[in-house]
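Continuing the batch. This is chain 6 of the set; chains 1 through 5 are on the previous pages. Same settings as before, nothing changed between runs. Recording input and output for traceability.
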Amino acid sequence: MLLSGDQIAISSGTHHVIAASVGAALRSYTVQGRQVLDGFEANEISPGGRGQVLMPWPNRIADGRYDLDGHVHQLPLDELPLGHAIHGLVRWAEWRVEHQAVDVVRFRHRLPPRPGYPFPLDLTVEYRVSSAGLTVTYGATNAGAVPCPFGVGAHPYFAFGGTSIDAVELHVPAETWLEVDARSIPQARRPVAGSDVDFRRSRVIGALRLDHAFTDLQRDADGAARVVLRYGKHQVRIELDRSFEYVQVFTGDTLFDRSRRRQAVAIEPMTCAPNAFNNGQGLRMLAPHESLQAAMEHRVTTWTAVIATQVRVGDLRLTLTPAR
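Output for chain 6:
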């Protein structure tokens, strides 16, 4: 068996996707033979979270510990250098294929209750490709008898043909960012104005090291906040609905594999803040049998792409459409 599990290939026209059963990860997505995402190989353990599904929380929980209704829960620590629990509980789980056709695959996983997270969840991830692009739909249902804390995140990396991200322009329409301590746990909300992380106007990333959560997002008339990556004529635009209050931007400076550092930018939409199980910022409490659904669509031309992220109550949608 390959390290990333079974490889499920789906396609439509020039759009080709490969998903891996370990973590239901989006391993590869090409359009007209060119990679849209910086993914990973079939016989490779996903490095740096590439293409992974982040449930039931994105980012970090400090010390893996949180208090819920007077009961302290302790999660396993899997970010050992900092001593935290990171990016949820399903990244390394084997997901089963529930449905497959030429252009679609749907994975399902039952997350059983366990010490630290004693809440059963029914989870699904569906990848559907068409001539217009790729739609990814995430689903979560609280299968237990008590409310449970929940958040959703995605971890795609975007690259521009092997170009170092130093030359890439970034626009993040955020008024504030979360200042963290030496262990990457948010301590305060700071204005971007006057700081070196003010990307309200598009500018080159240069040598700046980013692993920052941004919030208080500026929104257009349609309610979407738009994060943009640009290199020459190539562009990726990420559109975040009002339910996405946070977006993490990571330039990969601390990746274990030094050859992959600063070769791609991770734009990580998050429904809740880092350490949300403790600070409650953006945290969703799923009632018994309550469901949340999330969808991400990618529509790509040869070099120009737009990702639109929309969220409604019980519905999370991310869209990648051709730029106008």
